[in-house]
Amino acid sequence: MHTLTDLAAPAIRAELPGADNRQYRVRKCESTAVWLRRGAFVALLLAAAGAPFTPHFVQFVSRVAFALWLTRALIERRLLQCQALFLPFLIFLETAGLAALFSYDPLLSWTRLGWFGMGVLILIVPGTVQGSRELKLLVGVLLAAGFISGVRTAWQYTAGIGTQLAYVRRDCALAGDGLWSGDMIQKINGHRTRTPGQWKRALQLTRRDTNLKLRVARTYPLQHFDVMIARSDLDNWLADPTAALARGTPLRAQGGFYNSIPYAGLMMVLAAVACGLWLSARGLGERFALGALTALFSACLLLTVTRAYIVALLVSFLLMFCLGQRRRRMSLIFILLGIAAALFWARETRHLPRWYGEEDGSRVMMWRDSPRLILHHPLLGIGWDSVFSHGRQWNLQAYKAYPNKLSHFHSTPIQIAVDAGVLGLAMWFWLVAAWLRLLSRDLRLARDKDCFSRGLALGLLGSATGFVIASTVHYTLGDGEVMGGLWLLMGCAVALGGQLRQRVTE
């Protein structure tokens, strides 16, 4: 007699191959998702390693990471769930896109929007970084890359970047060749002259050459160019009693960037993160290493002679010391003295007439003209960077006083209000407020956790505070050199918050 089980067996066996195929497809999708996550994490490590050196590389790698993350999101739909900062960043980016769409100069606006696109790191980091170990590795790579940049800056100010022609008379032949007092000679006919020893050796090796090709670095920001001169012109100048040589160093530190201001911004962010980790470290070796990093980044920032970022870092130090230490009154006294000393030193070093700069400088002129542009274009603004091509057409004072200079508004809130209107400014304030609220929550959750989580939460809050303060007088959002590392750290803040909440529920 045939039972019901015997009758159903052929049907079950017929379904088995289909079930096996489904299981195979599930395993294949899971394996693909794992490799996509690993590839995105490697891209994040590359972005962290390149942040102190080349923003274009960070921009490219962030796009690669986003493509991998988006492909993985098609497999694991949970990645598309709304996380902290996801909604405010997305709406800010959409508003920025509308401003670019109706811009007076769409080409410039869409180029600027491409730099804002690095903000996708906010989405990628929390969905890619798994566990405290990977988060430590990501932050460690960023600090290590900053350490390499800082050592390079320290080398420039100790070993020098060239042999400086301290004084060149305007009526000598060398001046006729286009050389000025203060120019730094870095090569003579391909031979390095970055130190006095290399200078003497290069002169000896080229003693029979009738013509010399000089590689010259000039003033600030550093400009590099080649000059062809007769050997006799250099010999005659060296024989002149008024001739003077010196070890050439940068006027203001700028790392590998085009200007000292974005380098100052990045060093401020890294110094705050390192200081937060240092305040929470327990081991002697760890405290020494993080303290040395904090001192190195702070020294590099000081060498940029950028007042706003120096003051911003000191204020962030004050905040972190008050939150992480008990001696709040002493911290306040030392920080206030540091701010006063920094402002006085910067004024003397840069020969400024007042502590806040020039009253008739381009910065103040652009601030005065900003209300007029905001009132004429209140909703979506004039479009990102459109002022560069239409500044003269709109009769801006700075473009009349400095016709060869492309001025911007030297303030992130003012620049956003002009470029993206009141709507764009409101979305930016929403993103910043959500960011600060997230950091405060992370710090509260990390108080009784491990040293790394507590230190990272403290350092991220300090770096965000410094960023907000400096943004009032610098267009920090427009500096890809600063924002590459900052977007990455914002993503780390989201990832840290997720890890801390997971520990609480466990």
Explain this structure.
This protein has 506 residues and is of the alpha+beta class. The protein has 2 domains: 79-158 and 255-505, no CATH class; 162-248, PDZ domain (Pdz3 Domain). The chain is 67% helix and 7% strand. The protein is built from 19 helices and 6 strands. It has helices at 4-50, 55-75, 86-101, 106-116, 121-128, 131-158, 173-176, 196-205, 231-239, 260-280, 284-303, 307-324, 328-350, 362-376, 387-390, 397-401, 412-445, 451-471, 480-505; strands at residues 162-167, 184-188, 191-192, 211-218, 223-230, 244-248. Strands 1, 2, 3, 4, 5 and 6 form a 6-stranded antiparallel β-sheet that branches. Helix 1 packs across helix 5, helix 3 packs antiparallel against helix 4 (106-116) and helix 17 packs antiparallel against helix 18.
